[in-house]
Specification:
4-stranded antiparallel beta sheet, alpha/beta, globular, Alkaline Phosphatase, subunit A, 14 helices, Helix Hairpins, 12-stranded mixed beta sheet
């Protein structure tokens, strides 16, 4: 019996030592740009925009050349990224014109029953933080329930913006509400003005007797419209453009002064605080979404105006993160991922006529549409000693793939009660496989199934079929300039029957649609893709639409304001804290 006990003890000791010498779980650093085009970084072919730190990541890791956002808009793309699921599965895809959240006091957001990679990693003992942009909602029923807040979705720490950066957040940069103002304010005021003037003339000529009460009511209505318009202009910025730390507002409205430097400092401080335990850092930049900004060290220094200045400042920030990992000797045990939430916004031109959107390289279209320019994004992963440096991977991959990849690396099982659309990237990254696990990928324009991508296992072809495409305006342009973004239904699209078919492997710019004459298997290919689309559609469950008009509307009872700020909703705790620290 003592001999058996000694054998058992030796066996347990051996297993304990084997486990103690196994590779530790890596730290995870996920870096996401906002509206950055695949043609912007130097490692993807740009010769004039300086991105040495992003390029360094690519040279020291793997570059995905066909990395695809699950949606060409911010909110649904980020929902897919966080959950590994098509956004239509969580209700984070709109059936209406607006496909993103605009107001902090909207009631829609990422549902609490969705499982994010932050939740999975937190359950595995990781320290988790989100620094920067969230854009997946905040409150549901009252201004303190925080049902959609990052801290309710697995993050231990949050510092940043709960909605998004907009032109309206920066004085003098214009507005995203031009069309709304025209339809809801200027046209009604013009109609009321013409009506009052016409009635006054008819009344003076004695052709029509108009009671004074009619003039009073018309002028009162015009006055109400004007007052509401002026209130909107005055209050939009403080009510929607503010910074938070966890559940507390720190700056309302937010200041753009050294904003990227502040976000970077928060990120590096988080890393310093967690050198003794595994951590997940999601650094979600406000760059390069408009309004564009950069501090004096970068302003006016690039060859691409304000956009280039912002992009180069963001690249500097990436370098600061890499430097901290090196200084703390964490680089060899940290997976770093860099991407953009979707393609560059090609229609982004400011009131002075300056181009404020990025480059999508050779690819057609951009943000808000599913041409390659709207969904093909940078995808770079570095993990020294695990991912071979300097490799290019051409297989189709998705930003949804990060969810199962980091879950596996953290030792977390995937949820079994729901469909996970992402696929583990490690076999591709470690060259154990040359093929992506995605035979089919489905491209949504908001909640509408727009296109299907098929990479047959026995072929080098990558087929892409469009059920509809946006009507670019003006005709012959590369975007929907008259509406600022492309819409997904009605008069804004052209439907295709049979679907518009391309071979992306031979025609990545999508210039030459195939026909039965140019592709003998045309109908056979479309039949397979339609069957895949039908099977995918059957896998969808009906869920509440988080981006319904009711959920998107501003609700005063959900509005957050600085405590003790009264009706002004203005405070600057960051400035106060800086003064105290001195």
């Amino acid at each position: 019996m003592p001999k058996k006990m000694r054998v058992l003890s030796l066996l347990l000791l051996f297993l304990w030592e084997a486990q103690s010498h196994s590779a530790p779980r890596p730290n995870i650093v996920l870096v996401m740009a906002d509206d950055l085009g695949i043609g912007d970084p130097g490692c993807y072919g740009n010769k004039t925009l300086r991105t040495p730190n992003i390029d360094r990541l690519a040279s020291e890791g793997a570059k995905l050349t066909q990395h695809l956002a699950a949606s060409p808009l911010c909110t649904p793309s980020r929902a897919a990224f966080m959950t590994g699921r098509y956004p239509v599965r969580s209700g984070m895809a709109s059936w209406y014109r607006s496909g993103v959240f605009i107001f902090t006091a909207s009631s829609g957001g990422l549902p609490s029953n969705e499982i994010t990679f932050a939740k999975l990693l937190k359950n595995q003992g990781y320290s988790t933080a989100l620094i920067g942009k969230w854009h997946l909602g905040m409150n549901c029923h009252n201004k303190t329930d925080f049902c959609h807040h990052p801290l309710r979705h697995g993050f231990d720490y949050f510092y940043g913006l709960t909605v998004t950066n907009l032109r309206d957040c920066k004085p003098g940069e214009g507005t995203v509400f031009t069309m709304a103002f025209r339809k809801l304010v200027f046209i009604p005021l013009q109609i009321l003005g013409v009506t009052v003037l016409t009635l006054a003339v008819l009344n003076c000529l004695g052709l029509l007797r108009v009671p004074h009460s009619v003039f009073f009511c018309l002028l009162l209505l015009a006055g109400m419209i004007l007052v509401l318009f002026l209130c909107f202009l005055h209050y939009f910025r403080p009510l929607n453009c503010f910074l938070m730390r966890d559940y507390e507002i720190t700056q309302q409205p937010m200041s753009y002064d050294n904003l990227t430097q502040r976000l970077t400092a928060e990120a590096t401080h988080f890393i310093h605080r967690n050198t003794e335990r595994p951590f997940l850092l999601f650094l979600s930049y406000l760059h390069v979404h408009t309004a564009l900004f950069s501090n004096r060290d970068f302003a006016g220094k690039s060859r691409h105006g304000a956009y280039g200045d912002a992009a180069e400042e963001m690249d500097w920030s990436v370098g600061q993160i890499l430097n901290v990992l090196d200084e703390l000797r964490l680089a060899n045990n940290t997976l770093v991922y860099f991407t953009s939430d979707h393609g560059a916004h090609v229609e982004e031109v400011n009131i002075k006529g300056e181009v404020h959107g990025g480059s999508n390289g050779i690819y057609k279209g951009g943000k808000s549409n599913n041409w390659e320019g709207g969904i093909r994004v940078p995808g770079i992963l570095r993990w020294p000693g695990v991912i071979q440096a300097g490799q290019d991977i051409d297989a189709p991959t998705s930003n949804m793939d990060i969810f199962p990849t980091v879950a596996r690396l953290a030792g977390s099982p995937l949820p079994e009660d729901r469909i996970i659309d992402g696929r583990d990237l490690m076999p591709l990254l470690q060259r154990k496989s040359q093929l992506s696990d995605h035979e089919f990928l489905f491209h949504y324009c908001n909640a509408y199934l727009n296109a299907v991508r098929w990479h047959p296992r026995n072929s080098t072809s990558i087929w892409k079929a469009f059920f509809f495409t946006p009507k670019f305006s003006p005709a012959g342009s590369n975007g929907c300039f008259s509406t600022h973004v492309c819409f997904c239904f009605g008069k804004f699209v052209t439907r295709h029957d049979p679907p518009l078919l391309f071979d992306i492997s031979k025609d990545p710019s999508e210039r030459n649609p195939l026909t039965p004459t140019t592709e003998p298997r045309f109908h056979e290919i479309l039949k397979v893709m339609q069957a895949a689309a039908d099977e995918h559609t059957r896998s969808l469950s009906e869920v509440p639409n988080q981006l319904s008009l009711g959920n998107q509307l501003w609700k005063p009872w959900l509005q957050l304001c600085c405590p003790s700020s009264g009706l002004s909703c203005q405070c600057d705790r960051e400035k106060q804290d800086a003064l105290v620290s001195r």
